[in-house]
Amino acid sequence: MSVIETFNLTKNYGKISAVDELNLHIEEGEVFGLLGPNGAGKTTTIKMLATLLKPTSGSAKVNGFDILKAPAQVRRSIGIVFQEPSSDELLTGYENLRLHALMYGIPKSKIEKIISEVLELVELTDRKDEQVKHYSGGMRRRLEIARGLMHKPRVLFLDEPTLGLDPRGREKMWEYIKRLVKELQITILLTTHYMEEADFLADNVGIIDYGKIVALDTPSALKKIVGGDLVTIKAQALDLARVKKLPYVKKVEEIDGKISLTIDNAAENLQSLCRLIGEVQSLEVRSPTLNDAFLHFTGRHIERAEGGWFNRIVRESVTKS
Prior knowledge:
Blueprint: E1 2-13, E2 16-22, E3 25-27, E4 31-35, H1 42-49, E5 57-62, E6 65-66, H2 71-76, E7 78-81, H3 93-104, H4 108-121, H5 137-149, E8 155-159, H6 167-184, E9 187-192, H7 195-201, E10 204-209, E11 212-217, H8 219-226, E12 229-235, H9 240-244, E13 249-255, E14 258-263, H10 266-277, E15 280-286, H11 290-298, H12 308-320
Parallel strand pairs: 4-9, 4-10, 7-8, 8-9
Antiparallel strand pairs: 1-2, 1-3, 1-5, 5-6, 10-11, 12-14, 12-15, 13-14
Helix pairs in contact: 3-4, 4-5, 8-11
């Protein structure tokens, strides 16, 4: 059963489409990753689904409620955690949750029980009476998630859930989100520009670029589309024309002074490739990643695709001149 459905969902700002005819079907209990660079339209999509931003055209249903016809019902059935923390730093974790409960209209007779449950869920019970300004980045993100879960939503939107966390904090948050899904059996739509995050957490991934979904499948299927193993070589004298003719070489690119090859069965063919190349200065072999899938579908690496709207405006201006 689809919990989130979008129907040509579009948001325009002047002549620029931040989200361009988006069509998604996200099933109950699924973790769906919307993967793309900053400016690709991820946050705009979440804001429209959460009824915080009206689409230019198209529509969507969340938990069976139309975002245009039944926005109040949509908001009651979702939780949302945006990139920027919004908890009051001068209040304690407990006080932030109680304030949210009162503002959200949760019955007073249930507030203490719910606060206790969500604090335990996000492992902040022993820190609930500390001011939020003393929390680490990971603790603040967990508090935001606790707040988003207080009214027991069926769907949770996580917008860049590990943004600003160090690598260890990011991994701990991934483990926590996995546990959250298992214990609550909740549907999660998360946005991210971290490849490893989408790969680890998401059942299905939609690669979004310039507001359009350019690929949609499981992480493993998207990586398989790239095909073969990836070999990066730096050598003094490399006959590219000869390398390209090898039957097991599928793709050849030159990136930052190194040669990147996509080859079939690196374990079997790497030795003969090295004999052909001669003196090798450096060599790296790896399996395809989601970044390689992003490159395959968009023609560029995700870290070089930041600032989607601005880059698009510049690109169109140059094209017209």
